[in-house]
Please model this.
Amino acid sequence: MSYTEEYKRKLVTADEAVKIVKSGDWLDYGTFMGQVVELDKALARRKDELYDVKIRSAARVSGPPQVALVDPTKEHFIFNSGHFTIIDRKMHDFGMCYYFPLLFREVPSYYEHAGCLDVAMIAVSPMDKHGYFNFGLNNVYSKKTCEMAQKVILEVNSNMPRVPGGNSECLHISEVDYIVEANWPLMPIPEIPVSDTDRKIAENIMPFLEDGCCIQLGIGALPNAMGRMIAQSDLRDLGVHSEMLCDAYLEMWKAGRITNNKKSIDRGKMVFTFALGSAELYDFVDENPAVASYPVDYTNYPHIIAQNDKVLSINNALELDLYGQVAAESSGSRQISGTGGQVDFVEGAYLSRGGKSFIALQSTYKDKEGNLRSRINPTLQPGTIVTTTRSTVMYVATEYGVSCMKAKSTWERAEALIELAHPSFREDLIKEAQRMNIWTATNRRCTCQQAAGAV
Model:
Protein backbone atom coordinates (compact mmCIF):
# COMPACT_ATOMS: atom_id res chain seq x y z
CA MET A 1 0.00 0.00 0.00
CA SER A 2 1.35 3.45 -0.92
CA TYR A 3 1.54 6.25 1.63
CA THR A 4 -1.22 8.10 -0.24
CA GLU A 5 -3.49 5.08 -0.07
CA GLU A 6 -2.77 4.61 3.64
CA TYR A 7 -3.53 8.29 4.19
CA LYS A 8 -6.91 7.98 2.48
CA ARG A 9 -7.74 4.86 4.48
CA LYS A 10 -7.05 6.61 7.79
CA LEU A 11 -8.70 9.91 6.82
CA VAL A 12 -11.99 10.49 8.72
CA THR A 13 -14.08 13.40 9.93
CA ALA A 14 -13.40 14.89 13.35
CA ASP A 15 -16.73 13.52 14.63
CA GLU A 16 -15.80 10.04 13.45
CA ALA A 17 -12.30 10.20 15.00
CA VAL A 18 -13.43 11.18 18.51
CA LYS A 19 -15.75 8.17 18.72
CA ILE A 20 -12.76 6.23 20.06
CA VAL A 21 -12.78 8.34 23.24
CA LYS A 22 -14.42 6.58 26.20
CA SER A 23 -15.52 7.80 29.63
CA GLY A 24 -12.59 7.85 32.04
CA ASP A 25 -9.97 8.23 29.30
CA TRP A 26 -6.86 10.40 29.53
CA LEU A 27 -6.27 12.55 26.43
CA ASP A 28 -3.46 14.81 25.29
CA TYR A 29 -4.31 17.86 23.15
CA GLY A 30 -0.78 18.92 22.24
CA THR A 31 1.03 22.14 23.15
CA PHE A 32 1.10 25.80 22.12
CA MET A 33 0.18 26.17 18.42
CA GLY A 34 0.00 22.40 18.07
CA GLN A 35 -3.23 22.02 20.06
CA VAL A 36 -6.13 20.58 18.12
CA VAL A 37 -9.14 22.72 17.17
CA GLU A 38 -11.54 20.65 15.06
CA LEU A 39 -11.12 17.56 17.24
CA ASP A 40 -11.79 19.68 20.32
CA LYS A 41 -15.06 20.92 18.81
CA ALA A 42 -16.09 17.39 17.88
CA LEU A 43 -15.30 16.05 21.34
CA ALA A 44 -17.34 18.85 22.93
CA ARG A 45 -20.31 17.73 20.84
CA ARG A 46 -20.11 14.36 22.63
CA LYS A 47 -20.45 15.95 26.09
CA ASP A 48 -23.67 14.19 27.07
CA GLU A 49 -22.22 10.78 26.15
CA LEU A 50 -18.97 11.04 28.15
CA TYR A 51 -17.97 11.41 31.79
CA ASP A 52 -14.65 11.98 33.56
CA VAL A 53 -12.54 12.49 30.44
CA LYS A 54 -9.22 14.08 31.48
CA ILE A 55 -7.25 16.26 29.07
CA ARG A 56 -3.64 17.48 29.25
CA SER A 57 -2.27 20.43 27.29
CA ALA A 58 0.08 23.38 27.69
CA ALA A 59 -0.20 27.10 26.89
CA ARG A 60 -3.48 27.62 25.07
CA VAL A 61 -3.13 30.27 22.34
CA SER A 62 -6.09 29.73 19.99
CA GLY A 63 -8.97 30.47 22.33
CA PRO A 64 -10.46 28.45 25.18
CA PRO A 65 -11.10 24.76 24.43
CA GLN A 66 -14.70 23.94 23.64
CA VAL A 67 -14.68 20.98 26.04
CA ALA A 68 -14.18 23.41 28.93
CA LEU A 69 -16.76 25.92 27.71
CA VAL A 70 -19.54 23.35 27.32
CA ASP A 71 -18.88 21.75 30.71
CA PRO A 72 -18.07 24.30 33.44
CA THR A 73 -19.06 21.76 36.13
CA LYS A 74 -16.29 19.39 34.95
CA GLU A 75 -18.52 16.32 35.15
CA HIS A 76 -17.70 15.36 31.58
CA PHE A 77 -14.28 16.93 30.86
CA ILE A 78 -11.44 18.02 33.15
CA PHE A 79 -8.95 20.30 31.36
CA ASN A 80 -5.37 20.56 32.64
CA SER A 81 -2.50 22.78 31.48
CA GLY A 82 1.22 22.63 32.15
CA HIS A 83 1.74 26.30 31.35
CA PHE A 84 -0.72 29.18 31.52
CA THR A 85 -1.33 31.81 28.91
CA ILE A 86 -3.93 34.51 29.58
CA ILE A 87 -6.50 32.03 28.24
CA ASP A 88 -5.54 29.23 30.67
CA ARG A 89 -5.32 31.80 33.48
CA LYS A 90 -8.85 33.09 32.93
CA MET A 91 -10.14 29.52 32.69
CA HIS A 92 -8.39 28.73 35.98
CA ASP A 93 -9.95 31.79 37.60
CA PHE A 94 -13.40 30.44 36.67
CA GLY A 95 -12.57 26.89 37.82
CA MET A 96 -12.41 25.52 34.26
CA CYS A 97 -8.72 24.54 34.16
CA TYR A 98 -6.16 23.02 36.50
CA TYR A 99 -2.40 23.48 36.49
CA PHE A 100 0.03 20.59 36.67
CA PRO A 101 3.47 21.47 38.09
CA LEU A 102 6.48 20.42 36.07
CA LEU A 103 10.07 20.92 35.14
CA PHE A 104 9.77 21.48 31.41
CA ARG A 105 12.84 19.40 30.60
CA GLU A 106 11.32 16.37 32.34
CA VAL A 107 7.89 16.24 30.73
CA PRO A 108 8.64 13.50 28.15
CA SER A 109 9.52 11.17 31.02
CA TYR A 110 6.33 12.06 32.94
CA TYR A 111 4.27 9.87 30.64
CA GLU A 112 6.16 6.87 31.97
CA HIS A 113 4.99 7.74 35.50
CA ALA A 114 1.48 9.02 34.76
CA GLY A 115 -0.01 5.69 33.78
CA CYS A 116 -2.12 5.17 30.70
CA LEU A 117 -2.45 7.78 27.97
CA ASP A 118 -5.45 6.65 25.96
CA VAL A 119 -5.58 9.10 23.05
CA ALA A 120 -3.09 11.65 21.67
CA MET A 121 -4.52 14.41 19.46
CA ILE A 122 -1.91 16.69 17.90
CA ALA A 123 -1.93 19.26 15.09
CA VAL A 124 0.73 18.68 12.41
CA SER A 125 1.80 19.81 8.95
CA PRO A 126 0.68 17.88 5.82
CA MET A 127 2.34 14.55 5.04
CA ASP A 128 5.41 14.59 2.80
CA LYS A 129 6.19 12.16 0.01
CA HIS A 130 7.97 9.84 2.45
CA GLY A 131 4.92 9.47 4.68
CA TYR A 132 6.03 11.82 7.46
CA PHE A 133 4.01 14.50 9.25
CA ASN A 134 5.96 17.35 10.83
CA PHE A 135 5.15 18.73 14.30
CA GLY A 136 5.85 22.20 12.94
CA LEU A 137 6.05 24.92 15.58
CA ASN A 138 5.76 22.48 18.46
CA ASN A 139 8.36 19.75 18.82
CA VAL A 140 8.27 19.92 22.64
CA TYR A 141 7.21 16.41 23.74
CA SER A 142 4.89 15.63 20.80
CA LYS A 143 6.73 12.51 19.66
CA LYS A 144 6.82 11.03 23.15
CA THR A 145 3.12 11.72 23.56
CA CYS A 146 2.35 9.77 20.39
CA GLU A 147 4.65 6.92 21.41
CA MET A 148 2.94 6.53 24.79
CA ALA A 149 -0.66 6.84 23.56
CA GLN A 150 -2.88 3.84 22.87
CA LYS A 151 -4.38 5.70 19.90
CA VAL A 152 -3.03 8.62 17.84
CA ILE A 153 -5.18 11.12 15.93
CA LEU A 154 -3.45 13.78 13.84
CA GLU A 155 -5.18 17.02 12.92
CA VAL A 156 -3.45 17.92 9.65
CA ASN A 157 -3.38 21.69 9.27
CA SER A 158 -2.35 22.93 5.83
CA ASN A 159 -1.08 26.17 7.43
CA MET A 160 1.42 24.48 9.75
CA PRO A 161 5.03 25.03 8.58
CA ARG A 162 7.48 22.17 8.18
CA VAL A 163 10.31 22.89 10.57
CA PRO A 164 13.65 21.08 10.15
CA GLY A 165 14.61 19.08 13.18
CA GLY A 166 17.50 17.90 15.16
CA ASN A 167 15.31 14.97 16.13
CA SER A 168 11.74 13.96 17.05
CA GLU A 169 10.27 16.60 14.73
CA CYS A 170 8.07 14.20 12.77
CA LEU A 171 5.82 11.15 12.90
CA HIS A 172 5.34 8.48 10.24
CA ILE A 173 1.90 7.57 8.93
CA SER A 174 2.45 4.00 10.08
CA GLU A 175 2.34 5.30 13.68
CA VAL A 176 -1.03 7.01 13.21
CA ASP A 177 -4.54 5.62 13.74
CA TYR A 178 -6.72 8.42 12.36
CA ILE A 179 -6.20 11.57 10.30
CA VAL A 180 -8.46 14.62 10.33
CA GLU A 181 -7.91 17.53 7.96
CA ALA A 182 -8.19 21.16 9.09
CA ASN A 183 -7.39 24.62 7.81
CA TRP A 184 -7.48 26.95 10.80
CA PRO A 185 -5.06 29.92 10.72
CA LEU A 186 -1.98 30.04 12.92
CA MET A 187 -2.55 32.79 15.43
CA PRO A 188 0.17 35.45 15.48
CA ILE A 189 1.09 36.52 19.00
CA PRO A 190 0.71 40.30 19.46
CA GLU A 191 3.92 42.07 20.35
CA ILE A 192 4.03 43.18 23.97
CA PRO A 193 4.80 46.92 24.12
CA VAL A 194 8.25 47.81 25.41
CA SER A 195 8.35 50.44 28.17
CA ASP A 196 11.16 52.79 29.11
CA THR A 197 11.72 50.63 32.20
CA ASP A 198 12.15 47.53 30.02
CA ARG A 199 14.72 49.42 27.94
CA LYS A 200 16.60 50.45 31.07
CA ILE A 201 16.77 46.86 32.31
CA ALA A 202 18.00 45.77 28.89
CA GLU A 203 20.65 48.50 28.98
CA ASN A 204 21.81 47.20 32.37
CA ILE A 205 22.22 43.67 31.01
CA MET A 206 23.85 44.61 27.69
CA PRO A 207 27.40 45.06 29.09
CA PHE A 208 27.40 41.36 30.07
CA LEU A 209 26.99 40.26 26.45
CA GLU A 210 30.01 39.55 24.29
CA ASP A 211 30.78 38.19 20.85
CA GLY A 212 29.95 34.51 20.52
CA CYS A 213 27.35 34.40 23.32
CA CYS A 214 24.68 31.72 23.02
CA ILE A 215 21.38 33.37 23.92
CA GLN A 216 18.14 32.21 25.54
CA LEU A 217 15.33 34.70 26.06
CA GLY A 218 12.03 34.21 27.83
CA ILE A 219 8.77 35.70 26.61
CA GLY A 220 7.61 39.28 27.14
CA ALA A 221 8.51 42.91 26.65
CA LEU A 222 12.05 42.62 28.01
CA PRO A 223 13.14 40.01 25.43
CA ASN A 224 11.73 42.31 22.75
CA ALA A 225 13.78 45.17 24.19
CA MET A 226 16.89 42.98 24.35
CA GLY A 227 16.40 41.80 20.77
CA ARG A 228 16.19 45.32 19.41
CA MET A 229 19.14 46.50 21.44
CA ILE A 230 21.29 43.57 20.30
CA ALA A 231 20.18 44.07 16.69
CA GLN A 232 21.40 47.66 16.88
CA SER A 233 24.70 46.72 18.57
CA ASP A 234 28.00 45.61 17.02
CA LEU A 235 27.93 42.16 18.64
CA ARG A 236 29.00 39.32 16.35
CA ASP A 237 28.57 35.58 15.94
CA LEU A 238 25.81 35.14 18.48
CA GLY A 239 24.21 31.74 18.84
CA VAL A 240 20.75 30.53 19.83
CA HIS A 241 19.86 27.59 22.05
CA SER A 242 16.43 28.27 23.53
CA GLU A 243 13.19 26.63 24.50
CA MET A 244 11.21 29.27 22.58
CA LEU A 245 11.92 31.00 19.30
CA CYS A 246 10.28 34.43 19.19
CA ASP A 247 10.50 37.54 17.03
CA ALA A 248 13.40 38.95 19.05
CA TYR A 249 15.64 36.30 17.48
CA LEU A 250 14.31 37.07 14.02
CA GLU A 251 15.20 40.73 14.51
CA MET A 252 18.73 39.81 15.59
CA TRP A 253 19.06 37.39 12.67
CA LYS A 254 18.01 39.98 10.09
CA ALA A 255 20.55 42.42 11.56
CA GLY A 256 23.32 39.85 11.08
CA ARG A 257 24.05 39.41 14.79
CA ILE A 258 23.17 35.71 14.87
CA THR A 259 25.34 33.27 12.91
CA ASN A 260 25.52 30.28 15.33
CA ASN A 261 29.05 29.73 14.06
CA LYS A 262 30.67 29.76 17.52
CA LYS A 263 28.39 27.16 19.08
CA SER A 264 29.94 23.93 20.36
CA ILE A 265 26.87 21.84 19.47
CA ASP A 266 24.37 22.30 16.63
CA ARG A 267 26.77 24.73 14.98
CA GLY A 268 25.06 26.89 12.39
CA LYS A 269 21.59 26.17 13.79
CA MET A 270 19.11 28.19 15.84
CA VAL A 271 17.88 25.51 18.26
CA PHE A 272 14.47 25.63 19.96
CA THR A 273 11.59 23.39 20.98
CA PHE A 274 8.62 25.64 20.10
CA ALA A 275 8.04 28.90 18.23
CA LEU A 276 5.55 31.65 19.04
CA GLY A 277 5.33 35.04 17.39
CA SER A 278 4.39 36.77 14.17
CA ALA A 279 3.31 35.38 10.82
CA GLU A 280 6.75 36.44 9.57
CA LEU A 281 8.38 34.21 12.18
CA TYR A 282 6.24 31.25 11.13
CA ASP A 283 7.26 31.82 7.50
CA PHE A 284 10.90 32.10 8.57
CA VAL A 285 11.06 28.66 10.19
CA ASP A 286 9.29 26.89 7.32
CA GLU A 287 11.80 24.50 5.71
CA ASN A 288 14.65 26.79 6.83
CA PRO A 289 17.93 24.87 7.27
CA ALA A 290 19.17 27.59 9.63
CA VAL A 291 16.82 26.34 12.36
CA ALA A 292 16.46 23.02 14.16
CA SER A 293 13.64 21.97 16.45
CA TYR A 294 14.36 19.45 19.18
CA PRO A 295 12.29 17.85 21.95
CA VAL A 296 12.31 19.68 25.25
CA ASP A 297 14.39 17.00 26.95
CA TYR A 298 17.20 18.08 24.62
CA THR A 299 16.79 21.87 24.50
CA ASN A 300 16.21 22.27 28.23
CA TYR A 301 18.50 19.78 29.94
CA PRO A 302 21.19 21.76 31.80
CA HIS A 303 24.04 19.42 30.84
CA ILE A 304 23.14 19.87 27.15
CA ILE A 305 22.66 23.64 27.45
CA ALA A 306 26.07 23.87 29.14
CA GLN A 307 27.86 22.22 26.22
CA ASN A 308 27.77 25.63 24.53
CA ASP A 309 30.13 28.24 25.95
CA LYS A 310 29.01 31.67 27.14
CA VAL A 311 25.32 30.80 27.43
CA LEU A 312 23.42 33.93 28.39
CA SER A 313 19.91 33.29 29.76
CA ILE A 314 17.37 36.03 30.54
CA ASN A 315 14.03 35.21 32.17
CA ASN A 316 11.29 37.22 33.84
CA ALA A 317 9.87 37.12 37.36
CA LEU A 318 6.77 38.38 39.13
CA GLU A 319 8.33 38.84 42.56
CA LEU A 320 11.48 38.25 44.62
CA ASP A 321 11.98 38.13 48.35
CA LEU A 322 15.02 39.35 50.28
CA TYR A 323 16.41 35.82 50.41
CA GLY A 324 16.55 35.78 46.60
CA GLN A 325 13.67 33.35 46.04
CA VAL A 326 12.04 33.87 42.64
CA ALA A 327 8.30 33.71 42.04
CA ALA A 328 7.67 33.58 38.30
CA GLU A 329 4.44 31.61 38.04
CA SER A 330 1.94 32.58 40.73
CA SER A 331 0.78 35.61 42.65
CA GLY A 332 -0.35 34.24 45.96
CA SER A 333 -2.44 31.19 45.15
CA ARG A 334 -3.45 32.53 41.73
CA GLN A 335 -1.62 30.65 38.98
CA ILE A 336 -0.31 33.19 36.43
CA SER A 337 1.91 31.19 34.07
CA GLY A 338 4.11 28.19 34.89
CA THR A 339 7.61 27.04 35.74
CA GLY A 340 8.40 26.78 32.04
CA GLY A 341 12.10 26.53 31.29
CA GLN A 342 13.33 29.14 33.75
CA VAL A 343 14.90 26.67 36.17
CA ASP A 344 16.37 24.65 33.29
CA PHE A 345 18.20 27.60 31.76
CA VAL A 346 19.24 29.20 35.06
CA GLU A 347 21.02 25.96 35.89
CA GLY A 348 22.30 25.35 32.35
CA ALA A 349 23.75 28.83 31.90
CA TYR A 350 25.58 28.63 35.23
CA LEU A 351 27.15 25.33 34.19
CA SER A 352 28.23 26.76 30.83
CA ARG A 353 31.85 27.95 30.57
CA GLY A 354 31.57 31.73 30.81
CA GLY A 355 27.77 31.46 31.10
CA LYS A 356 25.46 33.83 32.96
CA SER A 357 21.78 33.68 33.86
CA PHE A 358 19.62 36.70 34.68
CA ILE A 359 16.31 36.97 36.48
CA ALA A 360 14.98 40.30 35.21
CA LEU A 361 11.99 42.24 36.47
CA GLN A 362 10.66 45.75 36.86
CA SER A 363 11.08 46.82 40.47
CA THR A 364 7.44 47.92 40.83
CA TYR A 365 3.92 47.50 39.49
CA LYS A 366 0.60 49.24 40.04
CA ASP A 367 -2.25 47.38 41.71
CA LYS A 368 -5.92 47.58 40.67
CA GLU A 369 -6.35 50.78 42.67
CA GLY A 370 -3.36 52.41 40.96
CA ASN A 371 -1.08 52.16 43.99
CA LEU A 372 2.62 51.58 43.40
CA ARG A 373 3.78 48.21 44.77
CA SER A 374 7.26 46.70 45.06
CA ARG A 375 8.14 43.44 43.33
CA ILE A 376 11.01 42.98 45.79
CA ASN A 377 9.54 42.20 49.19
CA PRO A 378 10.76 40.89 52.55
CA THR A 379 9.00 37.57 51.97
CA LEU A 380 6.76 36.24 49.22
CA GLN A 381 3.08 36.75 49.85
CA PRO A 382 1.27 33.71 51.30
CA GLY A 383 0.48 31.04 48.75
CA THR A 384 3.07 32.22 46.24
CA ILE A 385 4.98 29.42 44.53
CA VAL A 386 8.79 29.53 44.47
CA THR A 387 9.91 28.89 40.89
CA THR A 388 13.68 29.26 41.22
CA THR A 389 15.29 28.68 44.59
CA ARG A 390 17.58 31.20 46.22
CA SER A 391 20.52 28.81 45.88
CA THR A 392 20.02 28.55 42.11
CA VAL A 393 19.68 32.23 41.17
CA MET A 394 22.74 33.84 39.61
CA TYR A 395 22.13 37.47 38.52
CA VAL A 396 19.12 39.66 39.32
CA ALA A 397 18.44 42.72 37.14
CA THR A 398 16.03 45.63 37.54
CA GLU A 399 16.03 49.15 36.16
CA TYR A 400 18.29 50.07 39.10
CA GLY A 401 21.13 47.72 38.24
CA VAL A 402 22.38 44.14 38.21
CA SER A 403 23.72 42.06 41.09
CA CYS A 404 25.09 38.52 41.35
CA MET A 405 23.58 36.43 44.14
CA LYS A 406 26.18 33.67 44.01
CA ALA A 407 28.55 33.52 46.99
CA LYS A 408 26.47 36.03 48.95
CA SER A 409 25.27 35.40 52.49
CA THR A 410 21.74 36.34 53.53
CA TRP A 411 22.72 39.82 54.72
CA GLU A 412 24.69 40.47 51.53
CA ARG A 413 21.77 39.32 49.40
CA ALA A 414 19.36 41.55 51.33
CA GLU A 415 21.61 44.55 50.79
CA ALA A 416 22.05 43.84 47.08
CA LEU A 417 18.34 43.26 46.46
CA ILE A 418 17.31 46.37 48.38
CA GLU A 419 19.62 48.39 46.15
CA LEU A 420 17.78 46.94 43.15
CA ALA A 421 14.39 47.90 44.60
CA HIS A 422 12.58 51.17 43.94
CA PRO A 423 13.94 53.93 46.25
CA SER A 424 10.48 54.52 47.74
CA PHE A 425 10.51 51.07 49.32
CA ARG A 426 14.13 50.72 50.41
CA GLU A 427 13.84 52.05 53.97
CA ASP A 428 10.90 49.79 54.77
CA LEU A 429 12.79 46.86 53.29
CA ILE A 430 15.76 47.66 55.53
CA LYS A 431 13.51 47.65 58.60
CA GLU A 432 12.08 44.28 57.61
CA ALA A 433 15.55 42.90 56.91
CA GLN A 434 16.56 43.95 60.42
CA ARG A 435 13.53 42.23 61.88
CA MET A 436 14.40 39.08 59.89
CA ASN A 437 18.02 39.14 61.15
CA ILE A 438 19.46 39.48 57.65
CA TRP A 439 20.93 42.97 58.10
CA THR A 440 24.17 43.96 59.80
CA ALA A 441 25.90 47.11 60.99
CA THR A 442 28.29 46.80 58.05
CA ASN A 443 25.61 47.06 55.35
CA ARG A 444 26.32 50.08 53.17
CA ARG A 445 22.87 51.63 53.56
CA CYS A 446 22.82 51.10 57.33
CA THR A 447 22.73 54.33 59.39
CA CYS A 448 24.09 54.41 62.91
CA GLN A 449 20.57 54.46 64.34
CA GLN A 450 19.53 51.49 62.22
CA ALA A 451 22.70 49.63 63.18
CA ALA A 452 21.93 50.17 66.85
CA GLY A 453 18.42 48.82 66.29
CA ALA A 454 19.83 45.78 64.55
CA VAL A 455 22.10 45.06 67.52
Summary: Residues 135 and 297 are 16 Å apart (CA to CA). The longest strand covers residues 149-157. The first helix runs from residue 3 to 10. The two ends are 84 Å apart (CA to CA).
